[in-house]
Design brief:
- This protein is mainly beta and 113 residues long.
- The protein has a single domain (2-112), classed as Jelly Rolls, CATH 2.60.120.
- It contains two helices and ten strands.
- The chain has helices spanning 21-26, 98-102, and strands at 2-4, 9-12, 16-18, 37-45, 49-50, 58-63, 69-76, 81-82, 88-95, 110-112.
Amino acid sequence: MIKNVTRNTILAQHYDLCRNFFSRGRGLMFAKKMTPTILAFRSERSAAIHTFFVKHYLDVLFLNSAWEVVDLVQGLQPRNFYTPKEKAMFVVELPEGAIAKSKTKLGDVINFR
């Protein structure tokens, strides 16, 4: 479950966790259905993403090592790039509308188990 602890809202019940180079690189590319995905890095970095070969619009959260939202983007279209304004340790890719529905804002703490 991916939960916004600050607002006590659920962003997703289930998700895929991508911890290695290959799974992070693949992410949601070529996926037929949208499964919330977390890209986890070993340290904070400029975690730019692209949506080439992704068929769905996405909401994306960028979290620092304290699991705080440091950047977010809503409705990221297929075939685009996005570079966050801050370094991130986790990138959370969600179905479009998840950020608005959960009322997630910058500085919120996100938890996943």
